[in-house]
Amino acid sequence: MDTPGRRFGSAVVIGGSMAGLLSARVLADHFDKVTLVERDVRGEGPAARKGVPQGPHIHVLLDTGRRILDTYFPDLFEQLQVQGAELIDSSGDLAWHHFGVWKLRRTSGIPGLLCTRPLLEWNVLRRVKARPNVAVREGCSIEGLICDEKGTGRITGVRVKTPQGEESWEADLVVDASGRGSRMPQWLEAIGYARPEEEQVIVDLSYTTCLHEPPPHFQKDWKALFLYPSPPKAWRAGFISHVEGGRWLVTLNGYFGEHAPTEYAGFLEYARSLTRPDLYNYLKEATPIGPISQHKVKDCRWRHYEKLPRFPEGLVILGDAACAFNPLYGQGMSVAGLGAELLDTCLREQAERGELSGLAQRFRERLPEVIRLPWLLGTGMDLLYPQAVGKRPYGLGLLHWYILRLMERTSTDAHVHRQFYRILHLHAGLEAVLQPSVALPVLGHGVMSLLRPLERLANTETRPPPLTPPRPSPVPVQKSTGGIQSPESRQGAARPPISGKRS
């Protein structure tokens, strides 16, 4: 499992969420000692916590994220299934109404994970803690960076507030994975560096969630039901997902301040206000269990550290600390995983050189290759709404027209549907939906939409039935052969190399 060549000294990871846990796992292959610092003190077993306010709500793990987790934690998904999680076919087991149409339900071979975020995070945490060179320090917070006194521009450690008082810890590398609340811009400014430029799209989104017992007569014709809004006319959404314990996790979303109430009568009434009745019809027969929780997300934000003219050595920033996405599209955990995988690749390159110098610059210059596509996809969707506040680049209107027609076509065209899923799960870039075999039918659909109403061109009303058995099960989780795969074998055909330029 060790990286060939020399191991480096010590590393500190700020933040114990998924980005931090994956970073610690990667660093464990390269450093003699890794310390993960987390504010929360976690008990035994999966539970929501203050440091992850989005934890109680529905989460989507894209297939790229699943692949990365399976690479670094080979037995993870087997154990999750033992604990009640499900691996489903992300198309065949999903009933999805989006942009006014029902998407096709087909056997995609792309697995989807259904479980609560606390269950997933707890299982990953256990595996990170089991690494002999990883220490997890809970109940502590990072208060600032320590620079080399010789003026070399290198970060040499961190100032830490512990239950015993403030301490200074030395580190050869500091990784900021502290999420949306990252204080890195202030810390950099305090040691003489500029704040990064920020790209922002304001959406004022809320998540309101309640666990339910399914109705006893539920026919189980889907494992997840997604009712996305139809921009720009509607901006409320609702989701039901099976999770461990035979329960439903029900989440209602609203943009632009239209937040679902946190008392149940209002929660149910909000569900009835969605553009489709399906979720409400199921919910009124289900039984709520536990409290209703709410989490608000003001914006999605990309801090462009790669544009800073000066940046210190010994520092890496990834996950939501670098780019925080709109959680409605389920990109966050997968992009955090891609960032950790990129860090692994960069460290392997550094190991060949026998030193860490240059790592910070190499990583920050290449991280945008990981972020750019999901950022474009997510913000492109958000900016369909006139109420969304953000920079609208030239030609965005034409792109929006194409996106709308593409989404409508996924209701009837199996090839378009398949290519959409490839880009959705970050298996391919925009070329997947711009190639002639997709573009021509989408453009033809656009022409016909000038002559016919949508209900005559696509399935707007009838929820597709479940796939009739027998059907293939989702792609099995890859078994480990004893060791982390090389960067080349991990990348394979799943996505373009992270060090290369997307076509």
Task: Describe the 3D structure.
By secondary structure, the protein is of the alpha/beta class. Helix 1 packs parallel to helix 4 (117-129) and helix 1 (18-27) packs parallel to helix 8 (332-353). 32% of the residues lie in helices and 24% in strands. It is globular and about 70 Å long. The strands form 4 sheets. The chain has an 8-stranded mixed β-sheet, with helices on both faces. The protein has a 5-stranded parallel β-sheet with strand order 7-2-1-11-17. The protein has helices at 18-27, 63-72, 76-82, 117-129, 184-190, 264-272, 278-283, 332-353, 359-382, 396-409, 414-424, 431-434, 436-449, 454-457, 487-491; strands spanning 8-14, 31-38, 86-89, 94-98, 101-102, 111-114, 134-138, 141-147, 155-162, 165-170, 173-176, 197-213, 224-227, 236-243, 247-254, 287-304, 315-317, 323-324.
Work out the radius of gyration: 23 Å
Envelope shape: globular
Averaging pLDDT over every residue, what do you get? 91
The strands making up the biggest β-sheet line up spatially as 5-4-13-14-15-12-16-18
The parts where pLDDT drops under 50 for at least 5 residues are 1-5, 475-503
Number of strands: 18
Helix content: 25-40%
Helix count from the secondary structure assignment: 15
Query: What's the N-to-C terminus distance?
Result: 33 Å
Q: Note the beta-strand portion.
A: 15-25%
Largest sheet: 8 strands, mixed
Structural class: alpha/beta
